[in-house]
Structure formats: C-alpha cells, structure tokens
Fold Carboxyl-terminal processing protease.
Amino acid sequence: MPYKKKYLPLIIGVAIAAGIFIGGKLNFSDVPDKLFSKNSKKDKLNRLIDYIDYDYVDDVNTDSIVDVTVNGILENLDPHSVYIPKEDMESVAENMKGDFVGIGVSFYPYRDSIAVIRAIVGGPSDKAGIKGGDRIVMADGDTLFGNKLKDGELVKKLKGPLNSKVHLKVFRKGEPKLLNFTVKRSHIPIKSVDAAYMLTNKLGYIKINRFAESTYKEFKTGLDKLLDLGATELTLDLRDNPGGFLGIAEEIVDEFLEEDKLILFTKNKRGSIEKSFATDKGDFEKGKLYVLINENSASASEIVAGALQDNDKGIIVGRRSYGKGLVQREMDLGDGSAVRLTVSRYYTPTGRSIQRPYSKGNKDYYDEYFERIESGELLDPEKIQVADSLKYKTPKGKIVYGGGGIIPDLFVPIDSGMQNETLSILQRRGFIGYFIFETLEKNRKIYQGISRQDFIDKFEVSEAMVYEFQEYLNKRNESQLTFVAYHEEVKQYLKATLADQLYGLGAFEEVFNQHDLMIEEVIELSKGKK
C-alpha cells in the first residue's frame, strides 16, 4: 500500500517521541529498543485502526474505537487499572488536587434555576453577600435558568480563570428586584476532611473522605485544633474512604509512628522493593488512637489501617476493609486522556498483602462484595474467611491476616437501622436534601437565632416534619419508599441534613454521629469500659 512509505518517517518519529515520553513517565529500567521491539500484536491493532480509518465504508469516530479498545485491554489486566477519557480528566484532577477555581457556592440545580444551598464560609460569594436560598439567574449576561440547561453547562458558566470577575444577577425571596453582585473567582477547596471535633473532653474525631493532595494539610489543621482543645486520644474515621494518593496516606501515618518504623513497602514485577519509613515528625505518637474502617474503606485507607495495626499502634474498629493492595500510576496518553495502570503491589509492615484475588475476572471480583453480605460477615466476625497460610504476627505478637482486607481488632456489626437500602435510596437520590431545602425555603428566619452548637445539642426534628417528608415522597410518586420501620433513623437524617445546609463545616457528621454504633464503641473504649 503506497501510503505506508509516505507516512513511514512520521511513524518512526512518533514512535521515538512516544518512547522518550513513556520512558520518562513510567521510569522503566528497560531500554527503548526493548520497550518498542517488533510485536505482531501491536502491529495488528494499529493496522486494524488504520484500515477502519481509511477504508471502512462509513465515517467512523476512530477516537471512540480507541477508547473502547483501551478499556477492553485494561479489563483483561486487573480491576483497578482504568482509563480516564479526556472529558472526565478535569473533574478527576480537581477532585484529587483538592480545589478548583470558582465562586464558592454549594447549590442545587433546583427546578429551572441555580438555587444556592449556602455560600462557602470565607469564599468569594460569601464575601460578596450571596446567601442560602438565593437563585443565580444570570452570569455575565448569560441566562442561567430554563429546563434545557444541564448541570455541567451551569457549572462551566460559574467557573473561570483565577481572579477573574463574574457579574451575577440574583433573585432573593422578599426583594422586589434582582440583586447585582460582582464576584472575584478564587481557589475553592474540595474538602477531604469532613469533620474535626471533640467527642468527649479528651477524645477527638477526624473524618477523612479520600486522600487528595490537600488532605494532609487539612488533617494537620484539624489535628492541631483538637490538640488545642485538649485531645489526648483520637478517633480517625476512614469508613467509606476509597483511597487516593499513596504519599498522602504515608504522611498521615507518620503523625502516629515513631521514627524509623516501617510504614509499608511496594514490590513491582521485577522484584524491585521500595520501603517507606516514619520520620522524626509526628504530633500524635504518644496519644491513644482508634481507627474506624468498614467494607468500603479501600487502598490508601487500608495502608493507614494496616501500617498502624502492624506496628501495634492504636485499635482498629469496625468491619473487614475492601481489600485493595495494588498501586496505580497515572500516565498521560497525550490527547488529554490518561490511564491509571497498576505498577506494583503494596505490603504492610509485617509483609502481608491485603489484595483480594481477581484471577476469575472483574465481575467475580466485584460480586465478592455481595457475597460478604450474603454470608453474614457484616453481622458476625466468625463468618470472615481467613487462611492460616496468610497468618502474620505483629511485634507484640498480635495475629493479623493477609489475603483480602484489614480485619479489625474490634468488630462492630453493620447497623441495620441507619444503614439499610431504603435510607440509602432516600439519601443517594437526593430526596432528603431537596426536602430540607424546600422546608428552609418556606421560612429560613426561624433558624437565624439558633447557634450551630445549640442546634446540634438541642434541636429536635418534629413529628410533623417527618410526616411532611412522607407526603413529599407521595406527591412525587415515590409512595413505595416508606420508612415506618425507620422513623427515628429518618429523623436523624433530616436533622443532619438540616444542620449541613444551615451551617456546613462538619455539622452533618456531628449530628449523624450522635447515634453511631462504632463511635459509641470507641467512647466506651476511651472510658475504659471495654
């Protein structure tokens, strides 16, 4: 085929450039001629895409074919090697970086407009005077209301370059005319530390929802606050934390371990081992520590729990963690997309891998979660399957196991009251949040004189509000979502969501945790009653 000769110099140039680029990204020890040695399988794939691109009877978006091909390849590796399309990269990067540039409001795309839940305290909208309940109807002359606007389009109109200004027109209930605001965009944090407060006069609490670039700084701010309040013991809540950056998890572990204690080690397919040790820093090396985990605590969360457990530091409380012991590295594919490729396994200080088996394929791997539920493992620790061949000992002689997650030192069964499918649907689909927003819309002023702490300590959700919520569901043809068996639990959700929309800053967790089984166990441990 003549076009082959024509494009040969280009193909060679691209291959050389790609070799330099990928070599720099992956830090492979193999030389370029090894990495790009002749491979009929690679040639076959490239040739097929070229045939389709040049000769297929219909016009085809070959980019989409490549996306499908990449996903197909990764599905044959392991469950955690994933492809990130370029259209998703911005949100993924923002989430892991821990901030974005915007105007600083929490909002609902409510009915046909942007309804502000609250302005982030100290953010640009808060400084400009925007309040909860405001409707942002225009930005720089562009209309921000109407049924045809999608969530992503609304967000794009509010984002922009750092320090740029946006002119907003806002409808506020009770005001005769639209209000005008000029807001200067700035860095808006995406919080990875949900809450940091005192459970008792000596027991502090910090909840981390993921390990992003900003997490260690947020954690240190929270820890310093608790130390100033007199905390000598700490509860670190890693429940439902899916992980994140390995290095950030190591920094947090370093706050609890003495110098030169092994945090973890990683091993790649060539047998190369890298070890990570605690340094001489650490503000909580002597205090008592309790770490909360559950079946959704994964990856970096398990690194923290495993490193502490293997060093006999603290007590791990909860249920067996997810079981992800693979390390990914993000690699740019050159067109705005990227792949997170598994490059090594990590091991806890005693030498155990906590990665669940995945040799039977991705479906079986993810179905194992439901098998845990069906086996009764979430209710009874005796149902946890362990292998004697994967038994290890900590320096103080405690038995720990590898092969599939971190098994806690103190088991706490799942709370079938607060953690059930009905409440999960109500929360996940936004019914509770929207109902609370509409409740506040009727009369926000009745809450203006209530301080945050008074609300958390004294406010009680009325029976009338609970019945109104059921009527709210009925009117939306969701009458099948009844919660007769979970009446008190719904009250707790309603109060926590109300606290969140009124005060933010961890108010949801402070309310929700008041009837949390794991936290009750930790408080009992702290009092010496366990």
